[in-house]
UniProtKB/TrEMBL annotation:
Gene3D superfamilies: 3.30.230.80, 3.40.50.11260, Heat shock protein 90, C-terminal domain, Histidine kinase-like ATPase, C-terminal domain. The lineage of its organism: Bacteria, Bacillati, Cyanobacteriota, Cyanophyceae, Oscillatoriophycideae. It comes from Oxynema aestuarii AP17. SUPFAM superfamilies: ATPase domain of HSP90 chaperone/DNA topoisomerase II/histidine kinase, HSP90 C-terminal domain, Ribosomal protein S5 domain 2-like. Residues 27-180 form the Histidine kinase/HSP90-like ATPase domain. The keyword Cell membrane does not apply. SMART domains: HATPase_c. PANTHER family: HEAT SHOCK PROTEIN 90 FAMILY MEMBER (PTHR11528). InterPro entries: HATPase_C_sf (IPR036890), HATPase_dom (IPR003594), HSP90_C (IPR037196), Hsp90_fam (IPR001404), Hsp90_N (IPR020575), Ribosomal_Su5_D2-typ_SF (IPR020568). GO terms for molecular function: ATP binding; ATP hydrolysis activity; ATP-dependent protein folding chaperone; unfolded protein binding. This is Molecular chaperone HtpG. Residues 414-423 have a biased composition (Polar residues).
Amino acid sequence: MTVLEKGTIAIHTENIFPIIKKSLYSDHEVFFRELISNAVDAISKLKMVSLSGEINGELGDPEIVISVDKDKKTLSISDNGIGMTADEIKKYINQVAFSSAEEFIEKYKSASDNQIIGHFGLGFYSSFMVASQVEIDTLSYQQGAQAVHWTCDGSPEFQLEDSSRTTRGTTIILTLPDEEKEYLETPRLQQLIKTYCDFMPVPIKLDGEVVNRQKALWRESPSNLKDEDYLELYRYLYPFQDEPLLWVHLKTDYPFLVNGILYFPKLRPDVDVSKGNIKLFCNQVFVSDHCEEIIPKFLLPMRGILDSPDIPLNVSRSALQMDRTVRKIADFIAKKVGDRLKALYNENRQEYIRCWKDLGTFVKFGCLNDDKFKKQVEDLVIYRTTADLSPAQPDTPAVEVQGEEGDAWKEVQSDSNTEGPSYTTLDEYLQRNQARHENRVFYCTDEVSQATYVQLHKSQGLEVLFMDSFIDPHFISFLEREHQDVKFSRVDAEIDEKLLDKDKSTEIVDPTTNKTRGEQIKELFQNALNKPKLNIRTEALKGEDAKATPPAMVLLPEFLRRLRDMNALVAQENVEFPEEHILLVNTAHPLIQNLAQMTQGNIIQPGDAQSPSAELAEQICRHVYDLALMAQKGFDADGMKSFVERSNDVLTNLTQKAFGS
């Protein structure tokens, strides 16, 4: 073999290899991505040259072949692309950091729209992170070209000589030391191909079989794809996950090139909204699992693929370089997501409602964090409501209030005879309830614990909105800033006048005590509970059946509750139930009326010797308060223990009383 030249690689530092090995790339395995990318580039370049008319004859089917020789400890990556001459190796390999891709694109930019992956020049030299020796065996496409062989052992010294190669293309041979022998194992190579090269547009063969998918769905036209195509890709990317709710296909080439498919997943309670789940690609080459800088913060829980050569990466492709283009791409993504949501809202409202439980988090988070997005989707925010907005049945009279888009937000139903909850927008709610309670919104944050309060409002024709997602406490404050003339009241914050029975007959004075029933009951509870900071109110709650109304309710004024929650958040502490709160005792409830009769003329005094009836009345007062407190989740561990003990005492006394003991 004739030695053509010996020399020193032209570099601008004394020795660049330690820098490459220790600093440039954070993960050794990316050498594989870089070498496969170079092979794909070589094949793309050949096609571009062919289209320009510089090659005669058949090119053959493009392919990249990976082979291993465990005895020699070598890993080889071969392509049948454009190849290189000795002069090109001197120019593009020996001059480290000179990117041939940019020069090549400039020369052939009118020939094809094929993308050249490499932009950095240093990609080839990442092989020295794992190899003790790197060889290049190559034959150029050019007529009469001489095949050449280049060798370097990781020092600035190289050797370039003639080769006996007869087939066009390039083979990179890496001799691996023992500590890097994992890259000689087939499972490890399969894993690297799946991670980095699965969607590269050239067949990659390992052990004689094509092992990559090749087809990048996001590069296709949406009109050529079916729902099942999108779902199949999602299942492949995120196995063992629930099906996505819907997806957004991104495709633009001006003022930047972006392709991608983003999916709205079903959100789990433990989702980390600060962590990105979208895979970043550059010309179908996997780059990173994290692209938080590109995706708007409120869309980070989305999944899928984003592919763009215009996203500025550092030389190792491991980190984003923030610039104006990144911000523009983020704005573009947010707008496309907003467009997709608006289209679904207008074209398939039932499907929009079906997805809302999960979509709502994205939409609300977006409104809180992105003013442009807020303006785009603010009319798409919907709320589950206690109002029955289902279309009226035939021959059934109904009062209809129409919004701009109509107000019949009927829940998605698997069966037409199955009734479900309704949904409404805030504007529709305000318009519908203008006569009952102008510019006031009643809402619920916990359907279970606040069920009594919700039912009380429903029984008197007051509509309640459910705002029970984890983001809603922040979103309510946002709504109040957006609608400063609207008052938002949680159902357990205060009692609306429409819920109270102001019939004065309930306030008849008892001649034996010279006190009204309300005053008697208040004094009874004050003495039984002995809580100076507890504000006890006595009111008669409306209801067709007094037994269906609660005997007592704990109320937390809106302002004080929010202040408590905010202080706990700032202090990073659990929210403690405040000592200062309101106990509203329902004087219309039979239990409270019976309690008043039990103690008539014998008001309980703290510390006095008590009759069995007075003792039982005191226990019942505490039990009624406990039940009201439980609805507010006002118990800690000790409180729950005491409640159970008091409940047992009440039941014991009642059974004893039943047997006359």
